[in-house]
């Protein structure tokens, strides 16, 4: 009974039922009969449960009786026995459990968002809108917080450069795009260069070129994304936000989604896709738009994944488009199901990419879709175009000045001056 009580701490709902049946019936076969299942299913469930418990530090048959904290898993253990076989000392080595840590972060964000002040509605500057058009604003692999030195990589890049460039790009894109009623802000993953206190890739722990502290990176990410969303709200009747999971920022994509949903809760013209699954979908008349960062599936195999995951939407629509990034260069594949586009990035290459010869043209596009006819227009803007335009018009400092106003409005106790509709 004591072992069953301990195992319940690590059990799923179904495993909990099996443990209760084993306790009542006295064995696996009897429990299987009571649960109307095969005894092998009970055995496999118990093996999975014991394995999971051992990962958390509970395996008394191997003298593991000191569980690690909830966000950790056992990496290994060493036990010292005396000549009589009695345990004298034991060392438990543990690692942070990424999935558990993400779940705890999500729960913390839910609690935090309950107390977060809400944004005031933004006033639309133009009232005449084309209801049949949608402007898609894809931002893939922006790598905010990355450091790049032009003598090594061919272009400078740091947090300040990245923030100014993105604001300039959005201002130009909004000005040049059609007066569509709907916009999608597609942050396609890897918006942030790293995902925690250490500037490393989450999975492989590769060292990254970083130019700032993570606390500042979070502050800038929130500030610039809030600014560009407000710019889209000035032009469009409704804005749908997708904060896709990337391989550089899987945990940050969680708090970005939750923060945006809470911040714009009182703004009826903003919707946020809060799905934790790294595949996303938006239906617009006969046009369907699918999104995945590209770290799980590549451009040649994404079409069937999108069609399978969003079967009903795919079946209702005539024109389907998939969007991904991850590899930083443009690649388009048209299949019998849809057109899948791998997007380039606006970000400069880092030292790793430059030394490896992984270079591509930097750009991003505003893509316009029609409800009845699919893609009908595209505006591509490069960093060189923005620099030339700023030089011609003398508006180089425009983005910086506007960001100062956003910083002031976003400080604690202060709210945006935008008025309600």
Describe the protein's architecture and organization.
Strands 8-7-6-5-14-15 form a six-stranded mixed sheet. The chain has a five-stranded mixed sheet with strand order 9-10-11-13-12, covered by helices on one side. It contains 14 helices and 15 strands. The chain has 421 residues and is α/β, with parallel strands linked by helices. 36% of the residues are buried. Mean pLDDT is 86; it is low at 405-421. Helix 2 (13-25) packs across helix 3 and helix 7 crosses helix 14.
Brief account:
The protein has helices at 2-7, 13-25, 28-35, 39-55, 98-114, 150-153, 159-176, 214-235, 250-263, 302-309, 311-316, 351-355, 383-393, 398-409; strands at 58-59, 64-65, 72-81, 87-96, 130-139, 180-187, 238-243, 270-273, 279-284, 287-292, 319-324, 331-334, 339-342, 364-370, 374-381. With 421 residues, it is of the alpha/beta class.
């Amino acid at each position: 009974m004591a072992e069953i009580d301990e195992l319940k701490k690590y059990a799923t709902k179904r495993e909990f039922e099996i443990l209760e049946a084993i306790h009542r019936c006295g064995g696996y076969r009897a429990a299987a009969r009571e649960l109307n299942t095969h005894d092998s299913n009970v055995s496999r469930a118990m093996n999975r449960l014991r394995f999971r418990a051992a990962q958390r530090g509970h395996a008394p048959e191997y003298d593991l009786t000191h569980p690690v904290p909830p966000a950790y898993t056992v990496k290994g253990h060493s036990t010292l026995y005396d000549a009589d076989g009695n345990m004298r000392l034991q060392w438990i080595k543990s690692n942070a459990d990424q999935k558990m840590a993400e779940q705890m972060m999500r729960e913390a964000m839910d609690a935090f968002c309950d107390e977060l002040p809400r944004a005031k509605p933004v006033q639309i500057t133009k009232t005449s809108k084309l209801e049949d058009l949608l402007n898609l604003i894809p931002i893939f692999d922006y790598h905010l917080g990355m450091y790049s030195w032009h003598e090594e990589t061919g272009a400078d890049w740091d947090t300040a450069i990245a923030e100014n460039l993105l604001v300039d790009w959005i201002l130009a894109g909004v000005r040049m795009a059609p007066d569509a009623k709907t916009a999608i802000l597609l942050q396609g993953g890897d918006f942030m260069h790293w995902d925690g206190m250490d500037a490393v890739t989450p999975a492989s722990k590769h060292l990254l070129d970083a130019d700032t502290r993570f606390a500042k990176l979070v502050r800038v990410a929130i500030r610039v994304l809030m600014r560009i969303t407000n710019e889209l709200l000035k032009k469009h009747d409704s804005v749908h936000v997708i904060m896709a999971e990337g391989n550089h920022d899987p945990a940050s994509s969680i708090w970005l989604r939750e923060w945006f949903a809470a911040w714009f809760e009182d703004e009826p013209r903003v919707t946020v896709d809060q799905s934790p699954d790294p595949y996303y979908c938006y239906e617009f008349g006969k046009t369907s738009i699918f999104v995945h960062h590209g770290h799980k599936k590549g451009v040649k195999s994404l079409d069937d994944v999108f069609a399978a995951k969003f079967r009903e939407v795919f079946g209702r629509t005539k024109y389907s488009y998939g969007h991904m990034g991850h590899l930083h260069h443009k690649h388009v594949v048209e299949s019998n199901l849809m057109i899948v586009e791998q997007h380039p990035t606006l970000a400069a290459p880092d030292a790793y990419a430059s030394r490896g010869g992984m270079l591509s043209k930097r750009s991003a596009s505003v893509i316009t879709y029609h409800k009845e006819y699919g893609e009908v227009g595209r505006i591509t803007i490069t960093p060189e175009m923005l620099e030339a335009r700023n030089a011609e018009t003398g508006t180089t400092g425009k983005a910086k000045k506007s960001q100062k106003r956003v910083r002031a409005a976003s400080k604690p106790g202060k709210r945006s001056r935008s008025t309600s509709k």
